[in-house]
User: What shape does this take?
Amino acid sequence: MLNRFLDAVAGRVAKEVLVVGAQAVVFWAGGFAAMTWSSGRSPVDRLRALTPNTQALVVAAALLTIMLSGVAVRRLTPTVLAFLEGYGWPGPLRRYATTRQQARRHRLRERWERLRDAQSEATEPIAPDTYDAFVRTDAALRRIPGAPERQLPTWVGNALRAAELRPYEKYGLDAVKCWPHLWLILPAEVRAQISQARAALDSAVSALIWSVAFVFWTPWNGWAAPAAAVAAVAVYRGALRGPCAALADLVEASYDLHRTSLYTALRWPLPTDPAHEREAGKLLTAYLWRGSDAPTPVFAPLPDTPECRR
Assistant: This one.
């Protein structure tokens, strides 16, 4: 799974740490508001009633709690993201949700075919609404792997899985096995964009964790539970899907644009046509994963550069 590698190399961004810290502050501020609403006395008033030394200790403890809770949520984020993808689900629930995803893909495929046929058979210019519907359907269809056995029970899982599978379908390159090697030769600006997309996804997942955790304040105020539910749904359907789709598109685009750099760096002969490329990609993946003692293919000559001549 690419997420583990991306988390290791692209997920430790200072900006994200600040975002998670801000989310922690919002969570605890909301909790204090819930307590104030129920008791009629704010935590600030209670703090003023204490001695100066005790006030300092309470403030220090509060800041430490906010910091540690932010760190805990950041540590929990990769595990929650994997769960949101569909890993670790109980068998019956996973099968039920995956079946729903398969049915959704089937409906999208049927709609895509109808819209495609309508465009190909049209004798007049296609209406903008019809064309927009085709584009949206095509984009949604690309977020679900075609093979039923590769599908996952959630939109997030399928979007990332589809991006992982597409380099193999197009070029014979296993995205998971080849990604560490490709990452090392990607241009700095490409790696920066991928890092930012992964950071945005992690921040959205942490926001979802905080939203669900807001249920903790329910004993002090009953509105905390519905507020947590509304916030969680809004984050999942709004803030989470965008960064997920962006990360998936960037991973796929990295293979589309920079896969030849992988061949060149490994001195592997470049494919000559699309059909040949699939077979070459499979051989290259096997070479990176297992090595080889075969006499073919013959390595390409080293580039004629001053460094190589020395």
Q: What stands out?
A: The chain is about 75% helix and 0% strand. Residues 224-265 form the longest helix (42 residues). The chain has a mean pLDDT of 86. Residues 172 and 281 are 4 Å apart (CA to CA).
